[in-house]
Structure formats: structure tokens, C-alpha cells
Amino acid sequence: KDITTLHPIAAGDMYGIRGIDHLAKPGLLKRTLCGSYPSGPSSSEPPQIWKMIGDNSVAAYNVPSGILFDMHREAAAKRPGVLTKVGLDTFADPRHQGCAMNAAASEPIVSVQQFDGEEWLYFRSIVPDISIIRATTADERGNLTYEHEGAYLGGLEQALAARNNGGIVIAQVKRVVENGTLKPHDVR
């Protein structure tokens, strides 16, 4: 109930592949910060998340993907947040939209800060209670490899953000193998 989600890449449902719509239920999903909200193809029904954004039943923020990855890294390191010039004078700047996509997104997630005589955007870290990541293989200790995944995009940082702050990590994998069988250089 009242879940906040962070998705650096592709939060929406596309081409028959379920995305955030698993959680796009009134009362369950409160706030979402995503790098993109795709939908497609245009002949398909729009994803439920788009309906919720449109009727203001979820606070939706469109945060640049790199900043979301940085937010995971900063939370993992127990640092207060991301200080960046990325997004100044754009939709990410709080003097414009502050990443907000709808009226429900009224809680600021970014502020303008002065540092060393210059303007910066500051995104506070959001510490996850749970990180759900996908990998190909896990050993019995929880080491993960990504040999069949399209890309390795922040899984380690997302896992550490939860684990280092007392949360839990759930890894969806194709297989579990015995300890000592994964190649050390393949583990992320």
C-alpha cells in the first residue's frame, strides 16, 4: 500500500510485455519516479499507469535516467543525494516542472542549490525498502550474473541501495547454481 517506485528505464507496458502495470492499482501505487513511460504500439490499449497519471491517482515524475541511476548509487553509499547540473533550465528544474508529470506530483523531489558560486540541482536520495532486480543466474550466496539479459543497467546499485540500508533484495533469475560455479569476472 502507498508504494513509491523508481525505474530508471521503461516503466510502462510495451508490446505485450508487462511493466509497472503489475503495481498500477489505485491505493497500491502512490508515487513513481521513472526515466521513461513508454507505451506501444499505438493500436494497443494504453498502459494502466498512463490512465493513473492522467486521472491524478498516482504522483508521477519523469526523472532523467542517469539521475535515477545516480540516486540508487547515492542511497547505496548512504549519501544524502545527487548534486548535478543535468536538467538545469529544463523540465527537471523545479523552476519549471521539477520533473512532475501531473497535479498529483506536488511534493518536490528536486531543489536548486548554490554550491561554490554555481547553481546545481539537488535530488535527495530515496532509500528503497525492497529492490527487485532481474539477472540470469544466481548462486546459493546470492551472487548474480547477467549472461542472457539485454543489458546490465544498475542492478548492483539497486541491490546495494536496499541491502546497505536494511532493506531486502529480490532477484528474479532463470536458474540457481551451486556456490563456486560462477566465474568471478561475470558476477555483478
Question: Can you describe this structure?
Answer:
Strand 5 and strand 6 form a beta hairpin. The chain is globular. Helix 2 runs parallel beside helix 3. The chain is an alpha/beta fold. It contains 3 helices and 11 strands.
CATH fourth-tier homologous superfamily of the largest domain: Glutaconate Coenzyme A-transferase
Class from helix and strand fractions: alpha/beta
- Amount of beta strand: 25-35%
Biggest sheet: strands side by side, in what order? 1-2-3
CA radius of gyration: 18 Å
How far is the N terminus from the C terminus?
31 Å
Tally of individual domains? 2
Number of helices: 3
Which percent bin holds the helix content?
10-25%
Which terms summarize this structure?
Glutaconate Coenzyme A-transferase; three-stranded parallel beta sheet; alpha/beta; 2 domains; three-stranded antiparallel beta sheet; 11 strands
Task: Give a short overview.
By secondary structure, the protein is of the alpha/beta class. The protein is 15% helix and 27% strand.
Blueprint of the fold:
Blueprint: E1 3-7, E2 29-34, H1 48-54, E3 59-62, H2 65-76, E4 81-84, E5 110-115, E6 118-124, E7 130-134, E8 137-139, E9 144-145, H3 155-163, E10 168-172, E11 175-177
Parallel strand pairs: 1-2, 2-3, 7-10, 8-11
Antiparallel strand pairs: 4-6, 5-6, 8-9
Helix pairs in contact: 2-3
